[in-house]
């Protein structure tokens, strides 16, 4: 393959991956600080921003994430299927918002549970990719000298994407959206998603196989 075309393809691939990670990392920050700039106080959860003037940012970011995950081709069929489901669930989170009642209390975990279930399953599918499917590239193209570090990192990040959504659900059940700590638990979960994509991109970028693509 022509070297210029090869470089163009690789740069485009990694730019898209890093861009996806940045959307995840900036998502809660833009909601929080962007909201403050226009007079929106810190909400009790990320989902509550749907019922504020920051709605477009909330929905647009989730659509960007969902579209990318569905369009992105996983390294294996199992990873691809998991990412497709995660992409669809991200769209469901945007399209099935929590209810706006007194003080914007979140009805995520009352019937029909669709928003909360979609959000939780989204992170579970990404956690599955992080913990189980990351080895698809690790065992295939990543030098053995770096495999143990990445395996530890991915298991840690993946575990956080299981624990944090469950913690958020518990706190919502106990407090509704009266405590901002719920926002920061969800903040950490979204950042775990972004950090995984950055770490995975760095891992793949360093492989010799891609340099010979």
Q: Which percent range describes the beta-strand content?
A: under 5%
Please estimate the helix content. over 70%
Globally, the shape reads globular
The helix count comes to: 8
| Topology pattern, helix = H, strand = E | HHHHHHHH
Characterize the main sheet.
none
Q: Which structural class do the helices and strands define?
A: mainly alpha
Secondary structure tally: strands: 0
What is the terminal-to-terminal distance?
Answer: 8 Å
Rg, nearest Å: 18 Å
Mean pLDDT: 85
Contiguous low-pLDDT stretches (5 residues minimum) are: 101-112
Features:
213 residues; single chain
If you had to describe this structure to a student in words, what would you say it looks like?
With 213 residues, this protein is an all-alpha fold. The chain is built from eight helices and no strands. The chain has helices at 3-37, 55-71, 77-95, 114-133, 135-141, 144-175, 181-205, 208-211. The longest helix has 35 residues, at 3-37. The chain starts with a helix and ends with a helix. Mean pLDDT is 85; it is low at 101-112.
């Amino acid at each position: 393959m022509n070297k210029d075309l090869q470089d163009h393809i690789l740069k485009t691939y990694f730019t898209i991956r890093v861009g996806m990670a940045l959307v995840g990392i900036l998502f809660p920050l833009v909601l929080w600080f962007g909201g403050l700039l226009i007079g929106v106080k810190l909400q009790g959860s990320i989902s509550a921003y749907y019922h504020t003037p920051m709605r477009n940012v909330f929905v647009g970011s989730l659509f960007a994430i969902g579209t990318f995950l569905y369009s992105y081709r996983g390294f294996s069929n199992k990873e691809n299927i998991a990412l497709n489901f995660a992409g669809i669930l991200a769209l469901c989170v945007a399209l099935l918002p929590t209810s706006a009642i007194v003080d914007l209390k979140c009805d995520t975990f009352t019937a029909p549970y669709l928003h909360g279930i979609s959000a939780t399953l989204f992170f579970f599918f990404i956690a599955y990719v992080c913990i189980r499917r990351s080895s698809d590239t690790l065992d295939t193209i990543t030098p053995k000298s770096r495999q143990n570090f990445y395996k530890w990192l991915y298991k840690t990040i993946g575990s956080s994407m299981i624990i944090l959504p469950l913690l958020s659900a518990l706190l919502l059940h106990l407090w509704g959206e009266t405590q901002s700590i719920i926002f920061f638990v969800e903040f950490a979960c979204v950042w775990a998603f972004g950090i995984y994509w950055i770490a995975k991109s760095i891992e793949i970028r360093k492989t010799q196989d891609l340099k010979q693509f």
